[in-house]
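request received
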Amino acid sequence: MSVLSRGVLAALIIVPALAGCGGAGDGQDDITIRVYAAASLTETFEKIADEFEAEHDGVDVTLNFAGSSDLVTSIQQGAEADVFASADLATMEKLTADGLASDPVNFATNTLEIAVPPDNPAGISSFADLAGADVKLVVCAPEVPCGAATAKVEEDAGVTLSPVSEEQSVTDVLGKVTSGEADAGLVYVTDVIAAGDDVEGIEFPESSAAVNTYPIVALRDSGQADLAQEFVDLVTSAAGQKVLGDAGFAPAP
Amino acid sequence: MTTSSHGRPRSFGLPAWVFVPAALGAAFVLLPLAAIVAQVDWANFFPLITSESARAALWLSLRTSATSTLLCVLLGVPMAVVLARTEFRGQGVVRSLVLLPLVLPPVVGGLALLYTFGRRGLLGETLSAWGIEIAFTTAAVVMAQTFVSMPFLVVSLEGALRTAGQRYETVAASLGAAPTTVFRRITLPLVLPGLLSGAVLAFARSLGEFGATITFAGSLQGTTQTLPSLIYQQRVTDPDAAVALALVLVVVAVLVIGLARNRRGVG
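response:
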């Protein structure tokens, strides 16, 4: 443990020093900011990062996409990150509670949608249909954000679902639907849009019971605090919001 | 350490430097295991490993691993015998293909099973015409485990068969024993240790199987959620439970391997 923390300490000392060197020279190619973002932000953040790099000559944006909880764990273990965008508020709170960041900004929301294979073999048209005895339904496990949202909608609608599988991530759910193994899955609106013709999305009013809010923050230990904040600003700017809106995200209230 | 009661030679001229990388290698394997033990929240260890989901997952893992080991033996022993005792054109290619799951990422194995036995897979329509649905059932877990574990049994048994040679089999056959008798009375007893260690390897691999299972079978408590699936699920939300369960998995694996080793020592 002490070896680890010493390593982290060394990294904290060396990285800003190196970055400082890069900044001092006339070429700025050495500056990199590391953006850790929830897996559901993959397409949108790639676009936003391209835009950021175009606006900032000599700055590289390195993106790391994974489950929000996994990302928080690695940041807590000392991973070098400048920006963190989470798929839900609870996960962000773990980071702020540790003092690793403060005052995150909400930048988007996402709601659940039913995804079915294009031919909709089980004839699903409403949330209540999912509880049908012969419906092979796949959902997220209650431990992950999309599963927590599913449980909340379920409770609010008074419908008891009996899924055939509880998956670890929304992409695993989507995979079971696109392959035709499952009759239906509960995923986010943005996932349905990203999947294109492989699945068909069915909106349902009960989804308003669980609106997922995405917060973003520049991390306290970032060696590039200014650039990190500029990236956050780009995400919340009109340009960033357009990219997110095109992908199906709704604006944060 | 260097002497042996059975008159095995003292370490004979092994270059001294060999011990350095050997010790490094051992530390590389043992240190992470020690780290897991160090991470365990001993005060809550028992409640963590006896929770309902933990018991369901352990029981499912043991049941499915035992079934898949049995399947590996039933199908793998004939495969090993055919590979070791016959010669046919393209045998090398067949061997490589059959052993492919050894090097295939398990997730790919799971996808392959899905495209074969899944609802829209190669055999899916035929199977569902017969009223057989495999996806999301415990049978899917067993199939995923068998797929990844079989090569372990085949490889170790084929090696044992080749080492044992065919002398006794030839003698028995020349004395008039029918092929089945030779196989049952000579071949099998001769390679029993190899078969046992192959079966243990297959069981251990089944117990740890995760990638193919999660892709092909999904994860639902009591039906398809094996111990590794549960550990994967708990690692973020309840790391203490994940670590405790990981230790259980390690202990079960060590017990199985140790048990088999003892048996073999006696026999």
